[in-house]
Amino acid sequence: MAQKFTAKHSPGSDNAFRGQKARKVSSTARLMFLLPLPLLLSGIGEIFQGDVFGMVLELGGFSLLTLSAWLLNEGLRAEELFHARTIAKPPAIPRKIFAALATGLGVSAAAYGGDLTGGLISSVILGGIAAAAQLVGFGIDPMRGKGISGDNAFEAERVAQAVDKAEAYVADILDAAKRIGDKPLEARIERLAARARDLFRSVESDPRDLSRARKFMTVYLMGARDATAKFADIYARSRNAEARTNYEALLDDLETSFTDHREQLLLTNQSDLDIEIQVLRERLDREGVRTR
Q1: Distance CA 135, CA 129 (A)
Q2: Residue 201 and residue 11 in contact, taking contact as beta carbons nearer than 8 Å
Q3: N or C: fewer beta carbons within 10 Å in the chain?
Q4: In which band, very low, low, confident or very high, does the pLDDT at 118 lie, cut at 50, 70 and 90?
Q5: 185 to each of 194, 232, 248, 251, how far by Cα in Å?
């Protein structure tokens, strides 16, 4: 019998994570890019004053805090994608934890005044407080997978790996779409990504569907990625109308294929359920239990 894998943040039907890219990153996390700017200005001022040591500390703190902001935002996006999936492995790189460490080092560097005793200790304490505050405010990365434990762990692991690979293709497609410079067309490509991710969710709900959906999750998405990258290069230079028409036709075909295949998977699952119900009824009849 097919087993549906569920979790607290699993998508239900079409109302959860409609395949769109993660965009609900905290505005506070984005503001983290602005906080190091005073250190950049201060570091430039140290250059004109001839204070090389102060310049290294200020610009080093700026670089570390900027790196921290980037890691934090990427970590939040990875976490959102993790919660949107039914079966998922934890992010390979704990970006939010590394971001907190970079924040601690950056604040320590910026606060250090050159005193090897009191100055060093106080700067380390300030850095530790800043790192801890960031972890409290934004949390840590998911550290454990979901939907890949229990009796179906092997199948779930296979599904998680296949979806990870397919998600990478989708991410490449969306990145290439940004180079096209055409908002309506980019919206069409995002809609295609939504259809593809609908298919991923179906496979996660029933890992038996993986063998039937693998062609769509690999060959078709790989072709869509390559076609989108080539079209982006051509259209960004020439705005070729014929190339756009051909590419839109390809998007129509791919979107129809993904939608139809997902519906076929759902119909197949319903047929499996009907067969299982019929078998159960026949067994109950043999046991002398009346069934309707």
Answers
A1: 10
A2: yes
A3: C
A4: low
A5: 14, 11, 8, 10
Cβ–Cβ under 8 Å, residues 204 and 159: yes
CA distance 27 to 11: 24
Report the C-alpha gap between 277 and 55 in whole angstroms. 74
**For residue range 43-87, what is the model confidence (pLDDT) as tens digits?**
888 778 877 888 888 899 999 999 999 999 999 988 887 887 777
Mean pLDDT of 130-141: 92
Whether the pLDDT of residue 91 is over 80: the answer is yes
Using a CB cutoff of 8 Å and minimum separation of 24, what contacts does 49-56 make? 53/114
Residue/partner pairs of 278-287 with CB below 8 Å, 24 or more apart: none
Span 175-197, mean pLDDT? 87
Tokens of 9: 């943040």
Name residue 148's amino acid.
I
Identify which of 29, 92, 89 has the alpha carbon closest to the alpha carbon of residue 65.
Answer: 29
What is the length of the chain?
292
Q: Which residues pair with 146 in a beta bridge?
A: 88
At 111, which amino acid appears? A
Q: Which residues of 192-225 are buried (b: 16+ CB within 10 A; e: fewer)?
A: bbbbbbbbbbbbbbbbbbbeebeebbeebbeebb
Please classify residue 103 by burial: count the beta carbons closer than 10 Å to its beta carbon, then call 0-12 exposed, 13-18 middle and 19+ buried: buried
